[in-house]
């Protein structure tokens, strides 16, 4: 599952979101509860990259999103579950997806993958991951608390950023500086809604 979990997490956010592992993650979601007013638009089944994700609004936590997909490895299916929170900003709407962990992992700290999102139509959800270089500059310039990691052995992601700033601080930064250059608009993740079959 170690190789499948990052792939699935990026597939839905992530809805949830990325076509490749995000090089930016955050220790905190942008908000503690969703405030965009559009959670019902996420509800249902979505497909991306050959995977199907079912998204629900938990009754016990109506200001969050829950999503799940199946992974097949070692001749058995495993359910991968994700939790997400949406946030309204001055320049866009964002979704913070809690990265799944290995079962029994109580030591790894929580990490969230954040992307900007937009519903193009009722059946199409677009998600744009954070742009690594922009947030690396923000951390190195002291505008946001965090750490820039060098990983020269990884040719796909030679650098990564972990934000330790509070969700509110990150949101205020985006409100001040805008989303331009802070999200990868060239490489959106596109999720398509699976229509309900007749009789459902």
From TrEMBL:
Protein keywords: Signal
Signal peptide (from-to): 1-27
Keyword match Signal: yes
Protein known as: Secreted protein
Top-level taxonomy: Bacteria, Pseudomonadati, Verrucomicrobiota, Verrucomicrobiia, Verrucomicrobiales
């Amino acid at each position: 599952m170690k190789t499948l979990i990052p792939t699935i997490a990026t597939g839905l956010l992530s809805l949830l979101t990325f076509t490749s592992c995000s090089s930016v993650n955050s220790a905190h979601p942008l908000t503690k509860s969703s405030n965009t007013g559009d959670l019902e638009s996420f509800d249902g089944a979505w497909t991306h990259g050959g995977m199907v994700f079912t998204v629900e609004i938990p009754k016990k936590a109506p200001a969050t999103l829950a999503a799940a997909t199946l992974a097949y490895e070692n001749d058995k299916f495993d359910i991968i579950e994700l939790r997400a929170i949406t946030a309204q900003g001055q320049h866009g709407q964002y979704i913070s997806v809690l990265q799944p962990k290995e079962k029994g992992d109580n030591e790894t700290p929580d990490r969230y993958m954040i992307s900007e999102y937009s519903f193009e139509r009722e059946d199409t959800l677009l998600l744009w991951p954070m742009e690594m270089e922009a947030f690396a500059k923000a951390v190195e310039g002291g505008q946001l608390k965090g750490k820039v990691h060098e990983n020269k052995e990884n040719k796909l992601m030679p650098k990564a950023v972990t934000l330790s700033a509070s969700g509110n601080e990150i949101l205020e930064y985006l409100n001040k500086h805008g989303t331009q250059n802070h999200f990868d608009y060239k490489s959106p993740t596109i999720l398509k809604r699976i229509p309900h079959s007749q009789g459902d």
